[in-house]
Amino acid sequence: MVLKIICKNCGGKCVKGGFDSKSNQRYKCVECGVRQFSKYTYNAYDSTKRDNVLELYKSGHPKIDIAKTLGIARDTISKIIKEHPKVKPQRKITKKNIVSSLSYNQHQVIKNILKLHVPQGFIDCDPTYSIGNFYNNSGIQQPKYKFDIMPQIKGVKKADCRELPLKDKSINCLMFDPPFVVSTVPPLNGKRRGDNKSNIIRYRFGCFKSIQELKDVYLKSMKEFYRVLNNKGVLIFKCQDTVISTEKNLFSHVQIMNDAIEIGFRAKDLFILGSKNRVLSGHVTQRHARKYHAYFWVFIKK
Ligand SMILES: C[S@@+](CC[C@H](N)C(=O)[O-])C[C@H]1O[C@@H](n2cnc3c(N)ncnc32)[C@H](O)[C@@H]1O
Q1: Which of 133, 206, 217, 240 is least crowded, fewest Cβ atoms below 10 Å from its Cβ?
Q2: Does 51 lie in the same domain as 15?
Q3: 131 CB under 6 A from ligand 1?
Q4: What is the pTM for the complete model shown?
Q5: Which residues contact 286 (CB under 8 A, 6 or more apart)?
């Protein structure tokens, strides 16, 4: 049987070209002149083995393990790795750098979301910017587009999150932090009612007159975000469940997820922001657990 050898360098035809010191048949390419063997006894010269070394190294395996698994000397493994300086091992997940779904620091939550789910690493648009607590002194890049229905600081444009002055499919990442309180106290009227903490929160952030209004605003806003986001764009939605008139739990985060999926988003992740502050309502009886946490949903436009 005549063995047909194809050049490993250029794919050309090879002819017999002498023997090595151990009497193995050598071949020479008629096209490029490179000398080679039909079978490599020295594993590291085999290009598939070399690729395997780099693959294993990239996925974080120590050199000693790669050497044992592939039957290649450790020095040779080091040499192959040195020849490919761009190939870097992935950082191992440790207790220190693991991304957790639970945090007590909202800047940390946002940084984790950007790290895991936003390849560009920053937010393009915040339509409920308020005074920008998410970005101030946090190391989180300010968004290019800052909107609010009631702008409070310079640089924020007046816009309703249900009708944004942005083109279709024009941004990659949007942060949404709407009011979550439902109350009959008139919202966004510019007057502080009393000075207890819950009223200060209402005054500062606004609130909805009814559950239906909250649901409508959330739904219409999400439809608008679907319009302005690129395919695979990321919507980060901060929300909070609440108790209505001490009678009924409003599990907003469930409603939001169902609506987002209906619109065409994929629920990619969910982060929980815990609060260590304990604000008391003054009620005598308690019927539901007090909510000391908020959620950050991560939705991807399908
Ligand atoms: C919870 S605050 C946002 C806080 C902000 N993330 C921060 O870190 O400072 C909610 C904001 O949404 C704004 N808002 C309420 N309804 C809105 C609407 N329909 N369109 C745009 N902004 C709205 C309020 O004026 C308020 O500033």
Answers
A1: 133
A2: no
A3: yes
A4: 0.73
A5: none
